[in-house]
Amino acid sequence: MQLSAIVEALLLASQNPLPPEEIARLVRARVAEAEDIRVREVDEGKTPAVLPEWLLELGVTSAEKVTAAIVELNENYSENSRAFTIVERPKGWKLFTRIEYGDFVRQLFPGRKPERMSGPAMETLAIIAYRQPITKAAIEAVRGVACDGMIQKLLDRDLIRIGGRAELPGRPLLYETTDLFFEHFGIRSIDDLPNSTELRKVKLPEPVVTSAPAPAAEQQLALSDLGVPAAAAGDPTAQDS
Fold first, then answer.
1. Do 3-108 and 119-199 show the same overall fold?
2. Mapping DSSP to helix (H, G, I), strand (E, B) and coil, where does residue 94 land?
3. What are 162-179's pLDDT values in tens digits?
4. Which residues pair with 160 in a beta bridge?
5. Looking at domain 3-108, which of 1.10.10.10, 3.40.50.2000, 6.10.140.1670, 3.40.30.10 is its CATH number?
6. What is the sign, positive or negative, of the torsion defined by CA atoms of 59, 64, 65, 69?
7. Average pLDDT, stretch 20-24?
8. Which of 40, 72, 107, 179 is least enclosed by beta carbons within 10 angstroms?
9. 3-state secondary structure at position 148
10. With contact defined as beta carbons under 8 Å apart, do 177 and 129 qualify?
11. Nearest one of 237, 193, 195, 194 to 217, comparing CA atoms
12. Between 236 and 10, whose confidence is greater?
């Protein structure tokens, strides 16, 4: 039994992506299980089964060997025009149907309609993706409009999440992308985004900071400097001249 076939079986059975380290651990665990059974049979006075050579060799399976097996599988899929491929995601490798078969696979789900995001939502998502973690004020400084609605839509779709609070006055929330974002766009990290290095270095517009209202005494002083009577400013202690 070949390692590549075992890796293929694990990826096919798993609902979640598997990192190569986890696949290697599962393979070694199977070998260890067989060896434990053999030891128990000896302890019970039974004649232990002889482990096949191919199984013993799997006892030293490493993440590097798993990755090499995945490369071998993908090459085989490509050469034989298979309908699937193994793709790396942020949390590991996963078996996917090739995109060219999407129209046929879609017939399995006639009730599902492709969900498209609006231009403003995509703009907001792009800013968060390239400059995360980022505050709402910083996003609005780039777009020039309020982004509360767009941010909420992206949160509802699980494309972004709250990643903490900024060390700024008021401790504003910080937004960042989720694993679903990487899954949806088929990338492993932010570095896989187009022109990621250059765009992450571009200086963004500074958020507009709203100043706190000045104390009443300072407001009266400023108004008097402009020649405005105190009564006009709403001072209840002022008297008409």
1. yes
2. strand
3. 999 999 898 999 999 998
4. 177
5. 1.10.10.10
6. positive
7. 97
8. 107
9. helix
10. yes
11. 237
12. 10
The pair of structure tokens assigned to 13 is 């059975």
pTM, two decimals, is 0.66
Q: What is the mean pLDDT of residues 92-106?
A: 92
Q: How is 89-158 classified by DSSP, letter by letter? A: ETTEEEEEE-GGGHHHHGGG-TT-------HHHHHHHHHHHHH-SEEHHHHHHHHSS--HHHHHHHHHTT
Looking at residue 233, what is its pLDDT?
39
Determine the pLDDT at residue 115.
74
The CATH number of 119-199, from 2.40.30.20, 2.40.100.10, 3.30.1330.10, 1.10.10.10, is: 1.10.10.10
**Domain spans, the chain:** 3-108, 119-199
> What's residue 210's pLDDT?
54
In the predicted structure, residue 241 carries a pLDDT above the cut 60: no
Q: Cβ contacts of residue 177 below 8 Å, gap of 6+?
A: 125, 128, 129, 132, 159, 160, 161, 190
Task: Look at residue 180 in the predicted model and tell me its pLDDT.
Answer: 87
Instruction: Give the phi and the psi of residue 107 in degrees, each rounded to 5.
Output: -65, -20
Residue 16: both structure tokens together: 């979640």
Backbone angles phi, psi at 6, to 5 degrees: -65, -45
Say which residue the tokens 């009564």 belong to.
231
User: Which tokens is 171 given?
Assistant: 């401790």
How long, in residues, is the chain?
A: 241
